[in-house]
Design a protein that fits this description.
The structure is a single chain. By secondary structure, the chain is mainly α. The protein contains six helices and no strands.
Length: 191
């Protein structure tokens, strides 16, 4: 029989203040980079639009669905952990990690295709932004996956996993998902 984990009935942000300071700081840094991208794009809209046409919107859409699904699984994991359903929480978390790993595989294949066709960071201003933005995001995904694997260990080895840690991991992972949504819109969709 599962026992629900203790929760506060008062309204509060999930996780702790430290994760929110980190997330807001990271979002501020990405916002500055998004602004730099838009500024460069405004100076050569034709080049950016032409370069965007070489991106695979279908692959970008699948990647977006992978991360959205991953975020849903992480949210369901936290919900299950709050209810004391730790076996379900582990399964949801593993599905979230699988979708995050799938995102990395698809992104690596996209980069491989670009690099194989001679498109690099130095090709033009658009591709400089493309590789930097997606590269920094991939770094965030890797950090997030490491965090999720720590949460998996927490769920599998503790009878009473730390809810605040699970919420912090979920908060970070949702930030990663949100950043991809913005990157996808800027790089793949905006014309």
């Amino acid at each position: 029989m599962s026992m629900p984990l203790p929760t506060d009935t008062a309204r509060r942000l999930p996780g702790d203040l430290d994760i929110w300071v980190f997330v807001l700081g990271d979002m501020l840094i990405f916002s500055a980079y998004f602004f730099a991208y838009l500024l460069d794009r405004s100076h050569d809209t034709a080049l950016f639009t032409q370069s965007q046409l070489a991106l695979n919107q279908s692959l970008g859409s699948v990647n977006t669905l992978m991360l959205l699904t991953s975020s849903l699984m992480v949210a369901l994991c936290v919900h299950a952990a709050r209810a004391g359903e730790l076996a379900h929480a582990v399964r949801f978390l593993e599905l979230g990690v699988g979708c995050g790993a799938g995102f990395l595989v698809l992104k690596a294949s996209e980069w491989y295709a670009k690099l194989s066709s001679g498109i690099t960071l130095g090709t033009n201003a658009f591709y400089m932004h493309y590789f930097v933005l997606t590269g920094v995001h991939v770094l965030h995904v890797l950090i997030g996956l490491a965090f999720l694997l720590v949460l998996r260990l927490e769920l599998r080895t503790s009878e009473r996993p730390r809810l605040q840690l699970l919420e912090a991991g979920g908060t970070y992972w949702h930030m990663v998902d949100f950043l991809w949504f913005l990157i996808f819109a800027l790089l793949y969709l905006m014309r």
